[in-house]
Design brief:
This protein is an alpha/beta fold. It is 41% helix and 15% strand.
Length: 348
């Protein structure tokens, strides 16, 4: 049972792995009102979606009882209805929450650590995290190692898994000197920093590199001959277009994880990202498949761009392969295995 917020395609990829690899049946209650994205999930074999707006406390409790789940996954503490109902199932099944919160030692986080029992452990038996910074958060709010599971967030390998092999021969013939950004055009994503840094490097070096920006948002980007703008693209569209791109850059000022980094490493693109990006810890090895720069530091980003642009096509191809190899550390199947492992935990 998933008690979820907005469902994204990569979430469904894990659900499919649960059905395919473990014979699970997945029921998912999801937010259908005040959505930030247009994506609407559709029922498929083994996976049924239910609109959150159709439930109150009594009906949701009855709904869960009728299905008698072995695991309930709750998307954090953001929905009071979910919190109220799962308390009534403590001890009857394993209850899991997940979070991409990075531990930064802020005053607010220290308060959460102090009151972790009341804020988290009274509701959830297990904490599911994507990486090391989130593991630290879970541990600091009182979850012991045996109650923390990994591999929460993953790209959809059904979409991105074959891209590298499909396009590597094309890129070997001519590696695309094109840096791509995909995401919201927002200050938090650092897109303004990327455009400024790229323009300055381009003016200083007079090279043939291009920049492609995919998405939309409040930050306005001026059209230039070396900068292309594209509308929001689905994962399948991104995967199909990766033959045109050589490097992925995510210069975020704030990015708890960043599934898009896994998507593009899976597609075999070297990565430039800021040190605010949680996924960079696991998926970017400095100088091997990319570069990590200090968040908000334009000069540091310029240095990373210059380092990439100075590589030969042969070196870029090697970095591409290393990105692809690193991406194998995570997948929907590994995420599903991690979640199902708690059924073997006798401390549950």
């Amino acid at each position: 049972m998933y008690l979820y917020s907005e469902v994204m395609p990569y979430t469904i990829a894990v659900m499919r792995a649960l059905v395919r690899e473990h014979g699970a049946v997945v029921d998912c209650v999801y937010w259908d009102e005040k959505k930030r994205t247009p994506f609407i999930p559709e029922n498929e074999a083994g996976i049924i979606f239910y609109k959150r707006s159709g439930f109150d406390l009594a009906s949701l409790k009855k709904f869960i009882e009728a299905r008698n789940p072995s695991i309930i996954y709750v998307v954090g503490r953001m929905d009071n209805l979910y919190l109220k109902v799962v308390r009534q199932f403590r001890g009857r099944c394993r209850i899991v929450t997940g979070s991409d919160n990075q531990w930064n030692g802020s005053f607010r986080q220290k308060i959460a650590a102090l009151f972790g029992g009341r804020l988290y452990r009274r509701y959830f038996d297990y904490f599911w995290v994507p990486g090391a910074r989130q593991y630290e958060f879970a541990h600091n709010i009182g979850y012991p190692p045996e109650r923390i599971i990994n591999h929460l967030l993953t790209a959809d390998s059904a979409i991105f898994g074959n891209v590298y092999e499909q396009y590597k021969a094309i890129k070997k013939n001519k590696y695309p000197h094109n840096i791509v950004f995909a995401g919201r055009f927002a200050e938090s994503k650092g897109i303004d920093l990327l455009v400024a840094a790229f323009n300055e490097v381009k003016a200083a070096t007079k090279n043939d590199w291009q920049l492609t920006l995919i998405g939309s948002g409040e930050v306005q980007i001026a059209l230039q001959t070396h900068i292309s703008l594209k509308r929001f693209m689905s994962g399948a569209e991104l995967a199909a277009d990766t033959t045109n791109w050589g490097i992925f850059c995510l210069p975020s000022r704030y990015e708890p994880w960043g599934v898009v980094v896994h998507e593009f490493t899976m597609a075999g693109l070297p990565i430039i990202c800021s040190d605010a990006v949680g996924a960079g810890d696991a998926l970017v090895m400095e100088g091997q498949n990319g570069y990590i720069f200090n968040s908000g530091d334009k000069e540091a980003l310029k240095t990373a761009l210059q380092q990439i642009m100075a590589k030969s096509d042969v070196e870029l191809l090697l970095m591409s392969r290393k990105s692809y190899e690193l991406s194998k550390m995570q997948s929907p199947e590994i995420a599903a295995d991690s979640l199902m492992s708690i059924l073997e935990n006798n401390n549950g």
